[in-house]
Amino acid sequence: KRPIITVVGSINMDLVTESETFPKPGETLLGRHFSTFPGGKGANQAVAAARLGAEVRMIGCVGDDAFGKELTDTIANEQIDTDAILVQAEKTGIASICLAEGDNQIIVVPGANHALLPEHIKAHEDLIRTSDLVLVQLEIPAQTVDAAVETAHTYGVPVIVNPAPIQALSSTIRSFATYLTPNEHEAAVLKKEHNDEELHKKCIVTQGKEGVSYPAANGQQSEIPGFSVDAIDTTGAGDTFNGALAVALGHGSPLDEACVFASAAAALAVTKKGAQTGMPHLNDVTRFLKDNGTSVSFLS
Ligand code: ATP
Questions:
Q1: Is the dihedral of CA 117, 118, 122, 127 positive or negative?
Q2: Quick count: other Cβ atoms within 10 Å of Cβ 172?
Q3: What are the angstrom distances between the C-alpha of 240 and each of 50, 194, 224?
Q4: What's the CA gap between 293 and 244, in Å, rounded?
Q5: Which of 159, 177, 243, 292 fits 49 for a cystine, CB–CB 3.0-4.6 Å?
């Protein structure tokens, strides 16, 4: 049976310019290249989960503009249910990314993502109620995240909160999230913000190529080393990890196996360019695990 996953989160268009140098204030430069990529942590994680075999529903919000239509089509092309993607009289969220001098400068304008309100969670609570797992990030209004987490809790549906971009967590998230998935930087901020042992026991901390640290059954943190790959582009590693973790846990996989599966999927993602474009399909991960002499029970 395919796990059913509802993702509540952001949908953005990434607008990427490449130039020799960054423009100074008041300066106009000729760039080398321009491209657009579908993005937003919500959409990225939904795509990762869908490619790995889950039945995915997306709750999000786009504007009534061309980007909104294009992004919704892209999500639908991944066989994700887009019925709960709202269209509001706003601009679709964008990230304006300047690549130059081997570095980047990024401006994110949330736009329609900030028009995703708790009442929309209420209107679609049946999607949450009938899911095996719910996945949320923090690129939408805090009260909407709370509404999604609270609804999942009410119906006894496990919920993963990816605390990115990092901020102090509401008491709703701290009480009702099943797992949190910070990276190392986010985990350090959480440690500083919240003096809460119980919270840290829910943290699955991703550590780039070092792998992942997760709460084992004995109450201690356990480590899974990263898979060794030739990293080409780490964009989307975290989003792939989260989507894959949701799929494995949605299958009822134990946490250690779920972390192995998610690490394998994320390792494959860094071997390809782009966020969504680099995300693996289920057969890629199955083959990769086999080649690495590992297996997870839900795949056999
Ligand atoms: P990003 O913001 O780049 O998408 P992140 O900071 O949210 O990522 P990371 O901890 O960097 O998250 O990476 C997530 C997971 O991806 C890691 O736990 C690991 O399993 C895998 N991963 C990342 N980089 C590598 C790498 N170079 N080699 C192998 N696996 C990697």
A1: positive
A2: 18
A3: 11, 27, 17
A4: 19
A5: 243
**Atom nearest to 275 CA in ligand 1:** 4
Q: Is 236 in the pocket of ligand 1 (CB under 6 A)?
A: yes
CA–centroid distance, 195 to ligand 1, in Å, is 26
Amino acid identity at 245? L
Question: What's the token pair of residue 173?
Answer: 């998230």
For the chain, what is the largest distance between any 2 Cα atoms, rounded to a whole number of angstroms? 60
Q: Is 163 in the pocket of ligand 1 (CB under 6 A)?
A: no
Provide the token pair at 232: 């080409």
Mean pLDDT of 123-146: 98
Q: Tell me, in angstroms, the distance from the centre of ligand 1 to residue 64's CA.
A: 34
Q: From CA 189, how far away is CA 202, in angstroms rounded?
A: 15
- What is the three-class DSSP state of 96? strand
What number does the ligand 1 atom closest to the CA of 164 have? 7
Cite the DSSP H helix spans in 52-183.
Answer: 66-77, 118-123, 125-129, 142-154, 171-176
Catalytic residue among 14, 132, 146, 239: 239
pLDDT in tens, 197-230: 999 999 999 999 999 999 998 888 999 999 999 9
Nearest CA to ligand 1 atom 30: 267
Distance 212 CA to ligand 1 centre (A): 9
239 catalytic, yes or no? yes
User: What average pLDDT does this structure show over 143-153?
Assistant: 98
Assigned CATH class of 4-20+34-292: alpha beta
